[in-house]
Amino acid sequence: MQTEEPSLRIAPAGRGDRDALAALLVETVAHNGSVGFMHPLPLEEARAFWAGALEAAERGERVVLCAWRGGQLLGTGSLALVQAPSQPHRAELTKVMTATAARGLGVGAALVRALEQAARERGRRLITLDASLVEGASGFYRRLGYHVAGDIPEYAYKPLGGLGATRVFWKLLDAREPPAAAADPATDERFMRHALALAERAEQEYDEVPVGAVLVSPDGEVVGAGWNRNIRDHDPSAHAEIVAMRQGGARLGNHRLVGCTLYVTLEPCAMCAMAMVHARIARVVYAATDPKTGAAGSVFDLLADPRHNHRVAVTGGVLAAEAGTRLTNYFRRKRGKPPLT
Ligand SMILES: [Zn+2]
Question: Is 260 annotated as a binding residue?
């Protein structure tokens, strides 16, 4: 007999789910998950919290979703529908928890997407949230299209003690998505391979930091290409992206590169990100993230800053492992260390 693996089911929580939700909350707090409570959290307190939350859901002030597999609760997430009359369009994403045994199965992402859909259905377009900085939640929300508003130090005590910082995120649900034709993953990968080949050239032929960039016109034609030339050209501004955009501008006879997509093997820095905004680049696709100077969300989030009158759509992580290993090995070689494979 064949047994079928039960699939993930996401459904609104009812009163009957209170005890399962309480057990998940106690477990999350015991594992130092920042969800507003201190460890040890008595089961009775957890039950009381969910009783209140489920009543708020019945009044239409909150949405509580549960992720189930078979009869097992794998995760939960809530949406607080902001009640201020001036913010009928905002909802706060909160109490997103995944059972320890269900980590890495995509439960959290599925819950967030379902909560976004619930927000849309209730006319809420702006989602805000805060996430503790020490839990790696930052990358999770960024992959789901959330922008970083900023960090607040000493925001809340961790369940097991010690003050922790928090990162505040936002997402506009009706924000324009990149054009579907340009977001085809196979096309992205093909142009990223081209950029990676340029990065390799930068290192092999010129001993420059291996970063490559390719500028593609709205018709899918390569109109600019470049790699880092700082050392060779004695030019602090000669990053791969700048070199590719200069070439593209000359080729197109225009300082505006409207509708163009820029592929680059490393998350752009602030200088390059601002040049992309000035050039009206439609979209940037990058490979490896740069936790030290990245300006597409890692350190700064310039490409999506609502204060600019032009915003650049961003796709990160295309062939990231390959680009990241190349960069790591370049710097290892400079320090006389053997390469990682
Ligand atoms: Zn740069």
Answer: no
Distances (CA, A) of 103 to 9, 107, 204, 309: 16, 7, 41, 39
pLDDT digits (tens, 9 = 90+) for 278-327: 999 999 999 999 999 999 988 999 998 878 888 888 999 999 999 999 99
Q: What gap in Å lies between CA 70 and CA 67, rounded to an integer?
A: 10
Query: From the CA of 27, how far away is ligand 1's center (Å)?
Result: 43
Q: Is 239 annotated as a binding residue?
A: yes
Report which residue type is found at 325: T
- Distance (Å, whole) CA 177 – CA 62: 27
Alpha helices in the chain, H assignment, sequence order: 18-30, 43-58, 107-121, 137-143, 185-206, 230-233, 240-252, 270-278, 320-334
- pTM for this one? 0.57
Count CA atoms within 13 Å of residue 189 on its CB side.
6
Residues taking part in catalysis: 241
Query: Whole-angstrom Cα distance, residue 114 to residue 140?
Result: 15
CA distance 326 to 209: 9
269 is in an annotated binding site: yes
